[in-house]
Design brief:
By secondary structure, this protein is an alpha/beta fold. The chain is 40% helix and 12% strand.
């Protein structure tokens, strides 16, 4: 190991302790050795902090999962309808509900399908409005649009990257039926405020917990605090089966209605009673999920431990500030580990130069969402549709467009940096040191960044 690596490793072991006093006093801490003795940037010809970095494999695979899939394939019962009570999907629903501590779970083909199933089961549709975040996957918005309700977007908080409860309350109208908060990066949003606002205005709460498996907030598991919680099991998520989704709730009638909606409107008694799409999860997806549940919490704890370690090393560092967690957050899923980039502390270098420099040191960081969904073409497209022009007044649609000024979301899109975490946060503590070392080496050479 090179001498400058040793000195930097010693540095990251003491950085948080040495900067606490400075941060408390209001002074901007100077992090690391800025004399240039710690090595030339790899992007400018120096040696990288780490070569050929290999992160833990993702998606997670083990022999139990392979055996369960083989058994399911050999059975020939690949659709839920072929084995509705004893198949892998039914058993996964039972086990997942038990692990989280709710009355039930309904599995679907994706997280988007889970969200739309709840929207439909709650009777939300044309002329209704649902308030949600612009800083999310399009699936959140699509789950509302498919029912021809109006997605109303509230701005987000610049430090937590989560929906801003104050703006949520400002966006409520007489046609608002629900709030769909999104637990971004797998960390809890400010649910205490959201729930209070919903109760005040008699609104339903659909938690988009697609990234937030097992996260804990104020003694409760995310997804159990609103009327329903929806999860995604897409390949990149911290519990994965390729695609797939799930709905959890303690409202047994809502769960029954969700089952009926996702089963093309057919209830458990075999009666076709309502409008619904065919959103059923298949048995092969159920097999992958069921077999990995027994070890999923262990991986969840590892991610939380490594995320806490990274945060402790960045404490007081002005250049990158980890995602703010709300009071009462006990744990997060850490689907992503995210930080706000402050270019004024990197000699004014734009984010892309910083990311390129860190990548050359052997650590891949990246932006996340390029544009908030308020800046995507769907906001114009729906205004051309007869159903929206019929069900919503021209004044309401004009106001919808006028409210698409969400500066905090724009700021976060332009300044956030992430480490994808489903696989990388399962690595060793020494791998977390590599992440910090790469960041600090770039910081120590920040005066060179604008020459890249």
């Amino acid at each position: 190991m090179k001498t400058n690596d040793l000195s930097r490793r010693h540095f990251i072991g003491t950085v948080s302790l040495s900067t606490v006093g400075l941060a408390a006093s209001g002074a901007i801490p100077v992090i690391g050795n800025t004399s240039g003795n710690t090595g030339k940037l790899a992007i400018l010809g120096g040696d990288p902090v780490v070569k050929n970095k290999v992160w833990p494999q993702w998606p997670y695979i083990d022999e139990k999962m392979i055996a369960q899939v083989n058994e399911t394939v050999k059975s020939g019962l690949w659709g839920r309808i072929n084995n509705p009570k004893n198949g892998t999907v039914a058993r996964f629903e039972e086990e997942y509900a038990k692990m989280i501590g709710v009355k039930g779970c309904v599995a679907t083909g994706s997280g988007t399908q889970a969200l739309n199933t709840v929207v439909e089961a709650m009777g939300i549709g044309p002329s209704d409005e649902v308030i949600t975040s612009p800083y999310t996957d399009m699936g959140t918005i699509a789950s509302i649009l498919v029912s021809r309700a109006l997605p109303v977007m509230a701005d987000i908080d610049k430090e937590s990257f989560q929906i801003d409860p104050d703006d949520v309350e400002r966006k409520i109208t007489k046609n608002t039926k629900a709030i769909m908060p999104v637990h971004m990066m797998g960390q809890p949003c400010h649910l205490e405020r959201i729930i209070a606002i919903a109760k005040k205005h008699n609104l339903r709460v659909i938690e988009d917990a697609c990234q937030a498996h097992f996260a804990q907030y104020q003694g409760k598991t995310i997804g159990t605090i609103g009327d329903a919680g929806c999860f995604s099991f897409q390949t990149s998520k911290t519990i994965a089966c390729g695609e797939g989704g799930g709905i959890i709730s303690n409202d047994e009638k809502l769960l029954d209605d969700c089952y009926t909606v996702q089963n093309h409107g057919t209830n458990k008694q075999g009666q076709s009673v309502t409008i619904g799409s065919k959103y059923r999860m298949n048995e092969l997806e159920g097999a992958l999920l069921l077999a990995q549940l027994s070890t999923a919490r262990e991986r969840f704890e590892t991610r939380n431990r490594n995320a806490a370690y990274l945060t402790s090393k960045l404490k007081g560092f002005p250049g990158l500030r980890p995602q703010k967690l709300y009071e009462g957050t006990q744990s997060g899923s850490f689907y992503l580990y995210t930080m706000a980039y402050h270019q004024e502390h990197f000699n004014g270098a734009p984010r892309d130069k910083f990311i390129k420099a860190v990548a050359a040191e052997g650590i891949s960081l990246s932006p996340y969402i390029r544009n908030g969904l308020h800046r995507e073409p769907w906001t114009d497209h729906i205004l051309t549709l007869n159903e929206y022009k019929t069900m919503y007044s021209s004044e309401r649609l004009k106001k919808f467009k006028e409210e698409l000024i969400l500066p905090n979301c724009d700021h976060v899109c332009a300044n956030m940096v992430m480490l994808w975490a489903s696989g990388p946060l399962l690595a060793a503590e020494s791998d977390m040191d590599d992440v910090i070392n790469a960041i600090m080496k770039v910081y120590e050479n920040r005066d060179k960044l604008n020459s890249i």
